[in-house]
Design goal:
The chain is mainly β. It has a single domain, classed as SH3 type barrels, CATH 2.30.30. The chain has no helices and 5 strands. Strands 4-3-2-1-5 form a 5-stranded antiparallel β-sheet, with no helix packed on it.
């Protein structure tokens, strides 16, 4: 797993984490985006749709990912 000491604001990452409100069994979610803030307790990731704050204790996997591919031109 990625060491959070190696991360910097603006790095693009994907994070898998446990949802805190899971009822039956463990439920997970993923966040893909840019790191906005890292604290001792949490990490904030700016995804395409929202800013997601994730408790570090709920993270199961994390890794850096390359930049998104360039947008394709629309077909004429």
């Amino acid at each position: 797993m990625l060491s959070f000491g190696d991360l910097a604001t603006g790095d693009r990452i994907v994070v898998r984490y446990r949802l805190s409100n899971a009822q039956a069994g463990e439920k997970f979610s993923d966040a893909l985006g840019e790191v906005q803030e890292i604290t001792e307790e949490s990490i904030s990731v700016k995804t395409r749709s929202a800013l997601v704050r994730i408790d570090r204790s709920s993270i199961t996997h994390a890794k850096r990912v390359p930049p998104p591919p360039a947008r394709r031109r629309p077909r004429s």
